Amino acid sequence: MAAADGLPEPQLVPDQAVRGGHYDKMDDKENHQFHTELKRKLAHMFYVIALSKVVDDHVSLIHTLHTFSDRR
After folding, report:
1. Is 45 helix (H, G, I), strand (E, B) or coil?
2. Dihedral (C-alpha) 59, 64, 70, 72: value to the nearest 10 degrees?
3. Taking a C-beta distance cutoff of 8 angstroms, is the pair 51, 57 a contact?
4. Rounded distance, CA 21 to CA 11, Å?
5. How far is CA 44 from the centre of its chain?
6. Taking a C-beta distance cutoff of 8 angstroms, is the pair 2, 8 a contact?
7. CA 31 from chain center: how many Å?
């Protein structure tokens, strides 16, 4: 299909070209530190998202209560 479009066929990357990157060169200690830091950052990101959701829900509730009390 790519040849019909005038585009070159995609070239497959050999498995050896994928290997040898930074990740493969890390030893076990660096690998553990990398994953620990990644987990910490992900946990922090999810905490911030959850906290912002809670704050948003509280602001919505306060706004609703003020609107309701203004009608009385």
Report:
1. helix
2. -150
3. no
4. 19
5. 11
6. yes
7. 19
Q: pLDDT, tens digit, for every residue of 5-62? A: 777 776 665 554 555 555 556 788 888 898 999 999 999 999 999 999 999 999 999 9
Please report, in angstroms and rounded to a whole number, the separation of the first and last CA atoms in the chain.
68
The amino acid at 67: T
Angle at 47 between CA 42 and CA 29, to 5 degrees: 30
Task: Check if the beta carbon of residue 41 is closer than 8 Å to that of residue 48.
Answer: no
> What are 31's two structure tokens?
């690998």
Q: Which two tokens stand for residue 17?
A: 């070209």
Q: Which two tokens stand for residue 45?
A: 């990101």
Give the C-alpha distances (Å, rounded to integers) separating 5 from 12, 51, 52, 68: 19, 49, 47, 62
